[in-house]
Design goal:
- By secondary structure, this protein is α+β, with helices and mostly antiparallel strands.
- The chain has seven helices and seven strands; from the N terminus they run ααβαββαββαββαα.
- The protein has one domain: Gamma-glutamyl cyclotransferase-like (Hypothetical upf0131 protein ytfp), CATH 3.10.490.
- The two termini are 31 Å apart.
Length: 230
C-alpha cells in the first residue's frame, strides 16, 4: 500500500487499486484532519484544473521533478503510436501550482480528480511538502515510480521529435499537451528549462510557430489537423 506521509510503496503491488488508494488517502490523518486540503499541479492541472479552487499559489517541491516520460496510449497517443505526458519523478525540484480545495466541496472534488488521474492506478499518490510565498503546505501530488512500465527512459531528441510529430490520442496530441503546459508555466511565471528546451526543439523543426508568427504558441502539426484542447 501507499504510505502517503513517507511515500513508500509496497514493492509487491504492481498496480494499485484506485478505490483502495483513495480510501487510504481519506483515512490518512494528514488529509482527514487537515483544515485545508491542497493539490499540487505540475502539468495539465495548471491549465485545466479539475475543480473550482478556493485559492491557488505558486509552489516549489523538492525531491521531485517534472519529466515528459510517462507513456500515454489513450489520452495523447494510441497503442500503435504511444504518446507522452508529464509525470513527477524522483530527484531534483519542481515548480508548479498548489490549489486549496473548498471545504464544502472537497469530498466530491477529490472523487472527480481521482477519476481523472487514477482510473488505472498508474500514479503513486503522495502528500508532499510544498513551499509557497505564504508558507509551506502539504499537498496531494500524483507521482510516478521509475519502476512503472509507463515510465520511459530519457528519449533521444530524434525519438522525441517522432512522438511530437505523430502521437495523438482522444484528448489531442502530445505536441499540443507540451505546448499548453509550457504556455501555462510561462503565464504563472514558472521556469522549467527542460520544457523550454523541448519547445525550442519543436520550434526548430517547424512543429510550432515562432513567437513572432504566433504569439499564442499554438502548435501546428504538418499534415495533421489542429490538435484539440486537452
Amino acid at each position: 500500500m501507499v504510505d502517503f506521509h513517507t511515500g513508500t510503496i509496497d514493492p509487491t503491488l504492481v498496480v494499485k487499486c484506485p478505490a483502495a488508494a483513495l480510501h487510504e488517502l481519506r483515512q490518512h490523518p494528514l488529509w482527514s484532519s487537515a483544515r485545508e486540503r491542497w493539490v499540487f499541479g505540475y502539468a495539465s492541472l495548471i491549465w485545466r484544473p479539475e475543480f473550482d479552487a478556493a485559492e491557488h499559489r505558486p509552489a516549489l517541491v523538492r525531491g521531485w521533478h517534472r519529466a515528459l516520460r510517462m507513456r500515454s496510449r489513450v489520452n495523447r497517443g494510441t497503442p500503435q503510436q504511444p504518446g507522452l505526458v508529464f509525470a513527477l519523478l524522483p530527484g531534483g525540484a519542481c515548480r508548479g501550482v498548489v490549489y486549496r480545495m473548498r471545504p464544502e466541496q472537497a469530498d466530491l472534488e477529490i472523487e472527480r480528480l481521482w477519476a481523472r488521474e487514477m482510473p488505472t492506478g498508474v500514479y503513486d499518490p503522495r502528500l508532499l511538502s510544498c513551499r509557497t510565498p505564504q508558507g509551506t503546505v502539504t499537498a496531494l501530488a500524483f507521482t510516478l515510480s521509475r519502476r512503472s512500465e509507463s515510465c520511459l527512459a530519457r528519449l533521444p531528441d530524434e525519438e522525441m521529435l517522432h512522438i511530437l510529430r505523430h502521437a495523438r490520442g482522444r484528448y489531442g496530441s502530445t505536441l499540443d499537451y507540451l505546448a499548453r503546459t509550457a504556455s501555462a508555466l510561462r503565464e504563472q511565471g514558472l521556469q522549467d528549462r527542460e520544457v523550454e528546451r523541448l519547445m525550442g526543439l519543436a520550434r526548430a523543426h517547424g512543429l510550432v510557430p515562432t513567437p513572432e508568427s504566433n504569439s499564442a504558441g499554438v502548435p501546428v502539426s504538418r499534415g495533421a489537423q489542429r490538435p484539440s484542447a486537452g
